[in-house]
Amino acid sequence: MGMNLTFRYLKSPDDWIHAFDVVKELRPHLTDPEAFCAQLHRQHEENYRLLAACSVEWTILGLAGYRAQTNTLYGRFIYLDDLAVTSRLQRTGIGAELPNKVRDIARQARCAHFVLDTGLHLPLAQRFYFRNGMLVNGMHLVESLAHGGSGFAQ
């Protein structure tokens, strides 16, 4: 990689606001920095953590948002919600370093698995994850409830 990175947690709205431009590259539907900070506050209360890869000048170059969870499928695991690297620095190794840091955190927390979802419409992201040791283990299904989804047949 050849780049000196410092990793630090972003824990407050003052920190999160500086992450907005990088997250917006991953989530272009996010348009309001204040609403973004309010969303992160809610997620932070639900154990979401945001780890930043920063330059020596503390510029945010990439982010990994994750949370520890427990369920009957995986036991205790880390779920990677968000992985974003500023577009000008993609393919520099930052995108691999961030999940490696989160994997280390998962191991230290004695998690059994490291889990993430990626969109079916993102073949480059899929190849990235495959190259970095991830395997397809299921299919993520979604139903929008905003307009009263159909529900299951009775």
UniProtKB/TrEMBL annotation:
GO terms for molecular function: acyltransferase activity, transferring groups other than amino-acyl groups. The keyword Cell wall biogenesis/degradation does not apply. Keywords: Transferase. PROSITE patterns: GNAT. Residues 5-154 form the N-acetyltransferase domain. Pfam families: Acetyltransf_1. InterPro entries: Acyl_CoA_acyltransferase, GNAT_dom. This is GNAT family N-acetyltransferase.
